[in-house]
Every structure is written in C-alpha cells, then in structure tokens.
Amino acid sequence: MNIADLRKSYExxxxxxxxxxxxxxxxxxxxxxxxxxSEVPEPNAMTVATVGSDLRPSTRIVLIKDFDERGVVxxxxxxxxxxxxxxxxxxxxxxxxxxxxxxVVRIEGSVEKVSDEESDTYFHSRPxxxxxxxxxxxxxxxxxxxxxxxxxxxxxxAQFLLQPPRPPxxxxxxxxxxxxxxxxxxxxxxxxxxxxxxQEDGTWLRERLAP
Length: 211
Hints:
The structure is a single chain. With 211 residues, the chain is α+β, with helices and mostly antiparallel strands. It has two domains: 10-120 and 168-208, Pnp Oxidase, Chain A (Roll), CATH 2.30.110.10; 125-165, no CATH class. Helix content is 26%, strand content 33%. It is built from five helices and nine strands, in the order H-E-E-E-E-H-E-E-H-H-H-E-E-E. It has helices at 24-37, 81-88, 116-123, 128-136, 146-160; strands at residues 45-51, 57-63, 66-68, 71-77, 91-98, 103-113, 170-184, 192-198, 204-208. A hairpin with a 5-residue loop joins strand 1 (45-51) and strand 2. It is globular, with a radius of gyration of 20 Å. The two termini are 27 Å apart.
C-alpha cells in the first residue's frame, strides 16, 4: 500500500462565522460536548507541545481535566520532560483531534501551575492505584526495567496504605489561551478554519484562515 494514495473526503459538517460562537470558550465547550455525546474515543485526549532550552519542540498526549474562563487544565509530574520545559519556557500549544467528527481544535498560550488546593482536590479524587502511581513513576527518567515501577508501587503502597498524600512534584498546569483555532474538514480540501485572537481589552477577534 502506498500511503501517498490514501484519501478521504471530509463532508460531515461546516463551520461558519454566523453559526459559531463569538467567545471561543463557548465554541470549545459546544464542540467538546458534541464529541462526548458522539462517543468518539477519548474525547478528552489532547496533545501538549512544549519547547525545550535547545529550542526543539516535543509533544505528548495528556487528558484535559478542567476548563473555564481562566484556561485549560491538565495534571502531570512537574519533574517530567514537559515540566522541565515549561519551567524554562512557560508557553505551550494544545490540540484536540476528533477524527470521527472531522474536527481539530488548537489552543496557544502561556502556562502556569494551578494552586496547591486545586491540585490536592483533584489528586484525592483519583483512584488509589493512580495516586500510588504518581509516587512510583519517576516520569521521563531512564529506568532499568518495568520491575522498578512495580517495586516502587509496592513500596509506596505499603508506606501510605489507603491515604497517599499528593507528591510535591505532581500537580496541575493551566494554559491561559491567547489564540484558538477551530478546524472543520470540508470537501475538496476547502476546509473551514476560524481563528480567535485575544485583544488587549480582553475581547476576541475572530478571523477566517485559508485552509
């Protein structure tokens, strides 16, 4: 099979200025709800892109855990590669790809840690195994084998029993959007792209981009 010959015609929906929300957060909430109701696989999965001190970009998949007018939230290990890169360059880009709906959402902005209270609340809502896992995994570090994780999980499980505290190196990030883009696949590759750019007065400028 020649992958260059793979083709798909995007014909499920359209995205017009008149039918879209003036506020990108409301537009995102609407599309996310449709993705959830459509039962697409993992509608809450998003790509996070960061840039390290070597100016090389890197991406990974995480899960959105909250969003409101302050921004988009996810949780992770602060000592991971993305954590180290965000410490040195506190800007990132997010992307959602809902293949079945032929939609993409891109978000760019500055990143900050959420409050300790927010991180504590979410951490204690997680299943016990996930809370132990936050202690057991030295995320992004080289390990000798899977046995390291299993041994760490057993050790921390015995130490904390049913009440593991939140590790000091684990918590949430919030991306504060400065740009949003909503992409809807269309026939003949004439896709719809609406970009929202935050203005100095806090309002959003909505623009159509060529596909």
